[in-house]
Specification:
With 245 residues, the chain is of the alpha/beta class. 54% of the residues lie in helices and 7% in strands. The protein contains eleven helices and four strands, in the order H-E-H-E-H-E-H-H-E-H-H-H-H-H-H. Helix 1 packs across helix 2, helix 2 packs parallel to helix 3 and helix 2 packs across helix 7. The longest helix has 24 residues.
Length: 245
């Protein structure tokens, strides 16, 4: 694990140098993936790294966990509350759709959640531009393969240092890095709505996805779900398509 951490830290330092920027930042959500990235960028750029906490209709426990991550790894931080911004923007869009009688209430929950993710992305890039930093993403191998991220939201980043690590490996790395126990062992959730969890939404577990990615045997039903998620989300892992020249 020490070697894995050292390799990622060295890679992050090389990316900073190649991009000719001053440092790195990450959105700290209170979850395990962003906690690991916060620790990694703090090691890569001890005096030029930043954790950004962005509450937006969030659970209070998420902000508390995010603050504990910040304190545990000693990274500089800033908090930007996006709740009011989201309410104004989403409310304005909804009202215009209703005014023209084209509002689809069945898609409202997803549209709400995706807008929050994209507001956070915009916030990270605005802060990153201010500091001349790169935005570091938090997607692990399971999330990347299944497309469990918002296109141009939490998927809109400059670097993805965890993309080759399974969820289990991220958890091992978190324990090695000293991430607070309550963050390491909390139920993975994007905090999109009350009672929402990653695994309920995906229809399978991270343990099953990890096994699948490692070539191990899993139940056929889980295999079907994972393959379907991967196929359906292929567009998220590619540049926008263009017609032949």
């Amino acid at each position: 694990m020490e070697q894995k951490v050292e390799k990622i830290v060295s890679w992050l330092q090389n990316q900073v140098e190649q991009a000719n920027v001053d440092g790195l930042l990450v959105g700290v959500s209170g979850g395990i993936d962003s906690a690991v990235v916060a620790n990694l960028i703090k090691r890569a750029c001890p005096d030029r790294s930043l954790g950004v906490i962005m509450p937006c209709k969030s659970h209070s426990s998420d902000q508390e966990h995010a603050q504990k991550v910040i304190e545990a790894c000693g990274i500089e931080s800033i908090t930007v509350d996006l709740t009011e911004t989201h309410e104004v923007m989403f409310g304005t869009i909804q009202q215009q759709l209703k005014n023209q009688d084209i509002y689809n209430p069945e898609q409202a929950k997803l549209a709400d959640a995706n807008l929050r993710a994209r507001l956070r992305m915009s916030t990270l890039y605005t802060v990153a531009t201010n500091h001349k930093y790169l935005v570091v993403g938090t997607d692990n191998a399971a999330e990347w393969y299944t497309g469990y991220f918002t296109k141009f939201g939490d998927g809109g980043v400059d670097l993805v240092p965890l993309v080759h690590l399974t969820k289990g490996e991220v958890r091992e790395m978190a324990e090695y890095l000293g991430v607070p126990d309550e963050v390491v062992h909390k139920q993975p959730s994007a905090g999109l709505w009350e009672g929402q969890t990653d695994e309920n939404e995906m229809g399978t577990s991270y343990a099953m996805i990890d096994k699948y990615l490692k070539g191990e045997e899993i139940p056929e039903e889980d295999k079907k779900i994972i393959k379907a998620l991967h196929k359906r989300s292929a567009h998220k892992r590619k540049l926008p398509p263009s017609p032949p020249q």
